Amino acid sequence: MTTETAATPPVAKRVPAERTHHGDTVVDEYAWLAGKDDPDTIAYLKAENAFTEAATAHLASLRDTLFDETKRRTKETDLSVPTRKGDHWYYTRTVEGQQYGIYCRRAVRDGETEPPSTEDGAPLDGEAVLLDGNTLAEGHDFFALGTFDVSPDGRWLAYSTDFAGDERFTLRVKDLRTGEVLADEVPDTFYGSAWSADGSTLFYLTVDEAWRPYRVWRHTVGSAATDDAVVYEEADERFWVGVELTRSEKFIVVDVHSKVTSEAWVIPASNPTGAPAIIAPRRQGVEYTVEHHGHRFLILHNDGAEDFELAYTSADAPGDWAPLIPHTPGTRLEGVDAFANHLVVSLRKDGLTGLRVLPVGSTETYDIDFPEPIYSVGLESNPEYATSTVRIHYASFVTPDSVYDYDLVTHTMVLRKQKPVLGDFDPAAYEQHRDWALADDGTRVPISLICRAGTLKDGTAPAVIYGYGSYEASMDPWFSIPRLSLLDRGVIFAVAHIRGGGELGRRWYEEGKLLAKKNTFTDFVACARHLVKAGWTATDRLVARGGSAGGLLMGAVANLAPDAFAGVVAQVPFVDALNSILDPSLPLTVTEWEEWGNPLDNQDVYAYMKSYTPYENVTAVKYPAILAVTSLHDTRVLYHEPAKWIARLRATSPSGEYLLKIEMGAGHGGPSGRYDAWKEEAFVAAWILDRLGRA
């Protein structure tokens, strides 16, 4: 690696490394960057950071301004709406000047049925602090919680911490009566845990060398981790394992799932040493989830039901599945939450999320209505089983995150809290729209937009178009305080709901994966072209943005249509997909073959992936300006993917503007503290505004 000054782009050394598959030999000159412990790698990454810092030095004042705008609009000292579980209200507090949340509870008082008021943001009278993230994070550049799980009797707290960003957590148990953290300590655990009914036993997960959660362990409180027993182990490398306690607190559920197949096992929560019992053996292509409800298990499945249906089977002797809510094509059932006297089904229809209620003992369902043309709605945490009220989260591009309590009997809804936006924020100052682009194959692709009210469709407005398009993940409208800084500078924000996501049901996902993956990319380009054709913006005023699998999208569209964008932001981007999917030792490999295909065994998949993977397809064209953001300790998309991509872009098309910003102490989600996250967003937003001529 050579570099003259920080103002000069670093040049990565070339060390030819060959890979051969299906008779195809490829030379990768930058494979050496995968050597995380190589001093040359670290030196190169630091040189990239220095160059990026120098190249964006003129934006320092704007970054400060954007950060300050976010800070001024945010109520820094605040409380979440308390959630009742048993004899306590649970909530999270934030304090001005502190990076992390403080996890608290307060005893329920006699006759108290409504959650305590949190308007002033002050600690509740009589609160007990369960965990203070700021105290835990002291002395560390990064901090994240993996598990936060209170036992059914309210005595024990299981929690796990990560101080590197690599998502390897250390699990601990705290006695909430005494405040003592027990000697129990388990390193290298994964997200998720479940308590036995009496709180004597904790179930947790560990991962294999490919970062796949594959073992469920049983731990007795007060014992050494060396005494823990493996309850379930999954040998098939396509499958991940999860564990949870049902809301009824009657069963521990071990959820085993690949991208297209699933299986569930249950253990009576009152008998934690009992052997797991299977609900239904796995069948390739059949997915199902389990929720306990009285004498039955509810089964949400896709067996002969592309968009899923809800069924049930006996809790005493699981067998055949009897329909409860039949399959309706175009209405994607996404989840079911069981309460003593009601079921609430989360669904998706016509590109919008929704909630359907089924009273117990009735076959008549009803959907909860919401007023805006585009929005996002879903259930919040609802830990109580015997309740007639559910907590709902609602938001749109113009409506800040709102928490409602919905009465399942009277059908009335009470707003408990809306995220405060300080200053002169007025929702009426903004407009949200739904538009449609026409894809190359004639498919209509939805686009959601937000802009300042009165924005003219004459092509003069700058715009950002965001996309993801993988794993059936839907990019439903969400409210963002930092985004207001862009909108107030005249920028339109658009989301392309492209195939590979789940916005229009399971078929929408199927048409954007495996050997149909290119639909994801061409859909996005079609959306970008449509925004220009419809007068929302112009090509030289449009920046594309995406992260992770959406970063793969960014790299692919930069190759496919470099003339369509003035800039591209790729965050933790999966841009070296083929090389990664060819390596079974990496996290994004065996479990991902059902999403992308298996290029190791299938020549057609290999050729298809090679034809679109961004790193493989860099050419000497004029690229838009590109900003890649990544983290050294990312275990999902490894840092070397964007590092290699930027190096190859710079070598192949040297006239372009390419920047790589790498967090040297963070993981897939970037910086962990809220102020650090705001600074990161301000950095990206300033770069975008610069590209759009609004800096």
From TrEMBL:
The keyword Protease applies. Residues 9-418 form the Peptidase S9A N-terminal domain. Pfam families: Peptidase_S9, Peptidase_S9_N. Residues 478-693 form the Peptidase S9 prolyl oligopeptidase catalytic domain. Residues 1-20 are annotated as: Disordered. The keyword Protease applies. One of its GO terms (molecular function) is serine-type endopeptidase activity. Transmembrane segments: none annotated. InterPro entries: AB_hydrolase_fold, Pept_S9A_N, Peptidase_S9_cat, Peptidase_S9A, Serine_Peptidase_S9A. This is Oligopeptidase B. It comes from Phytohabitans flavus. The lineage of its organism: Bacteria, Bacillati, Actinomycetota, Actinomycetes, Micromonosporales.
